[in-house]
Amino acid sequence: MALALRRPEVAVAGLLALLVHGAMFGVLVVGFTLKKQPPPKVVVELWREMPPVNPVRKAEAPPPPPVVSIPSRPPAPEPAAAPPAPKPVPEPAGKPSKPPEILTKAEDKPPEAPSPEAAKAEAKLLEKREEEKKLREQKALEDRQRKEERKRLEQSLREDEQKRLAEQRRLDAERQKEEEARRKQEEEELRPLQEALQKQKKLAEDEKALREKNEVERKAAVLAAAKAQKAIEDYTQSIRLAIREKIALPPGMSGNPQAVFEVKLLKSGMVASIELIKSSGMPAYDRAVERAIDAAQPLPVPDDVELFQQLRDLTLVFRPND
Predict the structure, then answer these.
(1) What confidence score (pLDDT) does residue 67 get?
(2) Is the pLDDT of residue 165 over 90?
(3) Domain extents for the chain?
């Protein structure tokens, strides 16, 4: 209610309602106050002659009017009964005369004016009813205003919520655009660095792969060389044994002289040439070894061309006691 009274149009409407009700109340009070009691009607008896002085029985007085309680709206007063006509007075003996004409007129008894207490009670009752009516109207007005205010408040809250959601969506969209723009800018700025890192990484990977390849090749070469060397040694030992079986030592051979020959082989195992590189000091032993080399043909040679190339030129050492 206090919120409604702060609004100027509500305050003006309430003030006008109070003024109208106050004016109505004043009119009622003044009307009851200024209401004048009508003068009582008088019944007059007219006589042609003065009647003789005789004792006259008094007319019966009319009964007192009943006390009627005044309701909120007093009913219309009923006309009072006419007072009884006075009885004729008998004329004295010896003086006959016409009875006097009695001119009477019965009229309605005027309604009694309400007492001041009843008027006050009626005024208070009307005032109470007006006050209750004003209160009901004020309450209804306040209820309507409260409902309208609540409706306006709910509408305002809904509009504010819709505005807030719209603003939140707008902010989210702008934030998303800014994030996307910043991400693209960062990608543009980082692209050269990423490309350089990728190149460096690729070079490192290539170098590592090359090192690993070289290491594998080296190991393979070492293994192959070791294997070839072993094969060469095996074939060399086989050739030496084949030749040694053919050596016929000369008689009277003593000591352990050493003769070194260089032998060139063909792929078929035949000997292409024999050359004495270092003599044993005993020509007979040197000739015996040379004859044994020639007699041992064809010598055992490998089928592998590369391995045969390493066995093609052999340096053989012979000692009688080996």
Answers:
(1) 47
(2) yes
(3) 224-318
Architecture of domain 224-318: 2-Layer Sandwich (3.30)
Q: Is the pLDDT of residue 239 over 80?
A: yes
The helix (run of H) or strand (run of E) holding residue 315 is strand 313-318
| Backbone φ, ψ for residue 262 (5° rounding) | -110, 120
Q: Which of 32-46, 64-78, 187-201, 290-304 has the lowest mean pLDDT?
A: 64-78
Helix (H) or strand (E) holding 262: strand 259-265
Report the DSSP pairing between strands 271-278 and 259-265: antiparallel
DSSP three-state, residue 139: helix
Q: Classify the C-alpha dihedral 223-224-229-234 as positive or negative.
A: positive
Q: Which two tokens stand for residue 302?
A: 């490998």
Q: Could you tell me which residues are beta bridge partners of residue 276?
A: 261
Report how far residue 114's alpha carbon sits from residue 140's, in angstroms, rounded to the nearest whole number: 36
49-96, pLDDT tens digit by residue? Answer: 655 555 445 444 555 554 444 444 544 444 444 444 444 444 444 444
CA dihedral 139, 143, 145, 146 (to 10 degrees): 130
Tell me the two tokens of residue 261: 């020959």
Closest CA to 301 of 291, 292, 309: 309
